[in-house]
Amino acid sequence: MPTYSYNATRLIQGVLAGNRRDLARTITLFESRNLAHQEVASDVMRGLAPHAGGALRLGITGVPGVGKSTFIESFGIYLVDRGHRVAVLAVDPSSRLSRGSIMGDKTRMEGLSRRDEAFIRPSPSGGTLGGVAARTREAMVACEAAGFDVILVETVGVGQSETTVKGMVDFFLLLMLAGAGDELQGIKRGIMELADAVAITKSDGENRELAERARKSYENALSFFSRDRKVPVVTASALDGKGLDSLETILSDFYTEDKASGALEHRRKKQQIDWLWALVEEGLMERFKQAPKVVSLVDEMVAGVEKGEIFPGHAARKLLDRFSG
Amino acid sequence: MPTYSYNATRLIQGVLAGNRRDLARTITLFESRNLAHQEVASDVMRGLAPHAGGALRLGITGVPGVGKSTFIESFGIYLVDRGHRVAVLAVDPSSRLSRGSIMGDKTRMEGLSRRDEAFIRPSPSGGTLGGVAARTREAMVACEAAGFDVILVETVGVGQSETTVKGMVDFFLLLMLAGAGDELQGIKRGIMELADAVAITKSDGENRELAERARKSYENALSFFSRDRKVPVVTASALDGKGLDSLETILSDFYTEDKASGALEHRRKKQQIDWLWALVEEGLMERFKQAPKVVSLVDEMVAGVEKGEIFPGHAARKLLDRFSG
After folding, report:
1. Exposure winner among A115, B13, B145, B173, fewest CB in 10 A?
2. Those residues with Cβ within 8 angstroms of residue B222's Cβ, 6 or more apart along the chain or in another chain
């Protein structure tokens, strides 16, 4: 079967013109593992990159059950109604393995996906978290080049992917439920501390008062952590749209301020450099663990360390010497 | 000048007999960078290791001003009075550079240092955090072999060293001040979440009520974070000894329980394996960054990534290929 062949120039033109089909095709190209595709992908990237960077990049997380898709859909529609062009991407390294993955199904955001000013793309499937994140970064560049000015990057709320997404967005929003009890137990350690803002979802009807109480508690709890700036906590409802306006104000104030001061640019550059080193580290470890001469020694060293017979420092040195030698 | 020469057998015997001078000498040997010393050090390690592991390893942190030395001194004396043998170690990678380093001066714990059942050792100076931590781990083994049954590992409360210390202790205690305001701003993000217990220090005299209020606030704040077990918050005073008994009860209950269930052993094994991989990673990055063929390319790649001309993934691949090639 002949491989589908892409035309770099046509794709670049299409994306820059805001053609959604070309945008989708470009992202598929970026995700391809085919070597010939990867060469075209590099060309397309080079063509698009100078036109990227113009969006607010917003990471959104929250445990399953918090109403993430519903929230993103109504916030997305709200933004589109206010004149924005909204792209929704996702980072979900589990998406191939588990059925509980996010955005496997566009129909979960049916209203938003019907809007011309919106673009929804499920998580690239398979591969490491690093791989999925890399594809999502590339998709972000394409979406920005296509003129989307708000990029929502959704993540799963359980595991390492939050830290990764935090490293590729300007602002990180944590969705929480009212009621500080068992429902919250799913929030992984450290995720609360990544948040630039918290929204208490499902703040409607009888739940409203509970949500307001939760808001105050969270605000108090967050004041215990040292941050560059205050972390606002808002209540929001996807049902009646309450709180979406406050959220938009928070975001646009943040964006305007950080853009004017240069902090946005500075943070993005730092994210790129951090990302470079993270990839180098990941690549080094991968090459190390796959090196045949290392493989044959690893089990022995690990067993020795576990039994307390070999010191970690000694084992590490032996492994490193074997790798380099 | 001839190098001081160590006798492994004599040192092992001395340490196992609980001789404090031999213990101090052994730790100095472990810290030596002299190659001949390092060989003797390995022998001594092998002799001591089977006798290690019998202590509760307690990490203690808190920002400067929280009264860390004073707290450790009174808690140390309290434990010694209750029949324990207490060793105080420190992890402070800044100790060579800054004057604000911890435990540069034993006289700060004068009362404790005069007790025969106590042993105080300043942070090994110089080197990376990894290096300092490795030396402290080794010192811990020696102290345990010498019969100390409580090891207090002090750390600075600002930076990466907390995570490192968390990875080498059984229990991590965070010292905090009453008053949730500016004084707390020094607590780095993520440190609160490492704590297995929090102690509000200087809870005496007029400060008592304030400390009790802070205790409740912290307890509330901590309930927002998902943990395997509840994180107790106590008030304590180095002045009148208040709260030291509750703290001892918390620690001994924890130790007894985790020892009986096997959780202690399991956690320590995992810490050793994690440590092994952290050292491998650190070593790989070090070798990578020092490889001449990489060095010549790094600046170019970093500059390109910063300017947005080269993608981090592309730069990482180029650097990795240069390293392996």
Report:
1. B13
2. B192, B195, B198, B231, B233
Closest residue in B to A176 (Cα–Cα): B224
CA distance linking residue A214 with residue A212, whole number of Å: 5
Task: Identify residue B34 by its one-letter amino acid code.
Answer: N
Distances in Å between the alpha carbon of B229 and those of A185, B58, B197? 11, 17, 10
Cα of A110 to nearest chain B Cα, Å: 34
> Chain A closest CA to B71's CA: distance in Å?
22
> ipTM of the predicted structure?
0.77
Q: Residue B139 corresponds to which tokens in the numbers above? A: 């010192």
What is the distance of C-alpha A189 from the center of its chain? 18
**Percent of chain B's residues with pLDDT above 70:** 88
CB contact under 8 A, A279 and B188: no
Order of strands across the sheet with A86-91? A118-120, A86-91, A150-155, A56-61, A171-176, A197-200, A233-235
User: Which of A180, A313, A320 is the closest to B134 by Cβ?
Assistant: A313
**What is the chain B residue with the closest CA to A230?**
B185
Q: How far does A279 lie from chain B, in Å, by closest CA?
A: 6
Cβ-Cβ contacts under 8 Å, A275 against chain B: 312
**A226 with B188: Cβ contact below 8 A:** yes
A140, A168 contact by CB (below 8 A):
yes
* CA separation for the pair A72, A194 (Å, rounded): 19
pLDDT tens-digit map of A24-59: 999 999 988 888 888 899 899 889 989 999 999 999
- Report whether B90 contacts B154 (CB < 8 A): yes
* B313/A134 Cβ within 8 A: yes
Query: How many angstroms separate the CA atoms of A247 and A78, rounded?
Result: 11
Give the amino acid at B155: T
Query: Residues A284, B288: contact at Cβ < 8 Å?
Result: yes
